[in-house]
Amino acid sequence: MENDVAETVHVPQSSSDVKVHGSICCELRKILDRIASILPAMESARPGSSLGIHALCSLNSSVEKGKLIIQHCSECSKLYLALTGEAILLRCERIKSSLNQSLSQIQNMVPPLLAAQGSNQDLSAMARVVLETCRHDYLRDAKFIIDSTEEGAGKAILELLQRNNSTEELELEAFQIATSKLNLTTPKALLIERRSIKKLQEKICGTDSKKERILKFLLYLLKKYGKHNMLDAGGHKEKFPRIKSTIGLKEMEISKGSSSPLFPWSADYQKYKSFSKFEYDMFLRFFNTLSELTLELQDKAVDNVKVLLEGDEETCYAMLSNGFMDALICFLTNSHEKSNVKALKTGAQLFLAFLSNSRVEILSLSEGAFPLLATLVNSQIRAESLLILERLSHQLSCLSHIVSSGIAPSIIKLLSSEDTKLVERATKILSEISSHSDIKPLLISSNCISTLASVLKDGRLSEYCLKILHNMSDTEEALDLIAKTNGCLASIVEILDIGDRDEQEDAVSILHSVCSHSVENCMLVMKEGVIPALVDISVNGSEEGKETSIKLLRLLRDLRHKECFDSSCNQPVPISEVERSPMDHSAKKQSISKSSRFFSRKMRFFSKPRSLTLF
User: Which superkingdom, per the lineage (predicted)?
Assistant: First the structure.
């Protein structure tokens, strides 16, 4: 039972992983570890009565609830945890009480159990272990106490929530008290906090309106006042008599224990305090100066740019309109011409930092941007270039430019690379651009389907491989290759059993296209034992998966009642032609009879392997 719990709940391995209520979680962990150490002995002692089984089940349930609390305190928003500290403490007390009650019940059962075991020394010994453990007073001694600092943080936010009307000054003061007590004083910490709140919002969406209002308010505080949450060099709060909207994360002091401003080596940034006010020449100066810094300072600057732009669509669009991307492409082009690998890597990292804001769509890039990226794919910054292309491939405005850049052959070649990261990038890019009519002939002529089949068999990138094959399956040449490439059909059919619903949809659609192409292909698909999996999807799959699997099942079923092919003919016959040809029973009675018996035997033979054990 304990093992089951461990598999369903991830519990942090140390108290340092817990964000808030570390002392409570530490005390709770001691109890849970003690229970876990005696559970095997309890179960082996066989308290077989209904009361004993109920006590063990209750014990395991309480252990799981305890682990969920520790997990909650390690993943949740710090502000929300501080605000709900009293509720968490009460939950821990209830778990402690429930554990104590279950152990008492088991303790009362052990003496009769000892008497019943008689000469069975092993079971008697186990029962005595249980009895000795249950008598221990470690549960009674356990104390759950909220940390006073964390309690103060929660109290500040709670008082703010309880006010009917609060001024900006009061909100800012309460926010700064709470965040300073919870160490939410750096851009990174604030970013993690914001993400934690959004994750919690998604989790409880539509289930608890009160919690949703609280989380919405916390997010409001973070967005409005997070930019003012700075520490001076001595670690004391700075007072802000008035709120200036132009001061944001951009002016926050990034370094822990340091008061140095952002990008001190950029005179332009020190003057304007915002990238939204930069122009083309200023961006170019920023890139050139950055490329001359040490690697450590470069990495720090790129990280800061990423944090600054996270969720700030307004600044990102202002940068685009003011020439940021044109200046960056110019910088990369000059660095490439000078073979300056260090500068190229810096430029690529800045490109990725900008693209990390997934909500910003790049409507246009300079004329030479995509040919440059195509060139860089074969350079020393191949990994960074592929990642840039992968992210750009998600934007519709960039797809046609990626295709026309002539980069596809280089991407296709990478499918055969021994570097798994490169294969992953290439597969993801191709999954986005393979629907383009100019790409399909390249994929077919490159004989990449055999490579895709082996990647598909590996399983890690099956979603993207299936998407590529699905995009190709509207051409006859691709369908022939899919059907006849060794292992390809087998890998696709396997997805029907083990894939998720999206993967099943693509797999069924591919198989339907393959079978619709020729009778020979139908036989190859049936040879893989596809029928049981199709039946399962037709009942339990997604709506699209159900619809397509039913179509394919009907197609395969109808073949049993038609003259599909002559035993002496090895050429594939299109299914559409078979369905159009009327059957003259009087003229071909004997031929049909023989063919039907032959096809019936094939159906029985080929449908036996694989998934029959599912029925």
Answer: Eukaryota
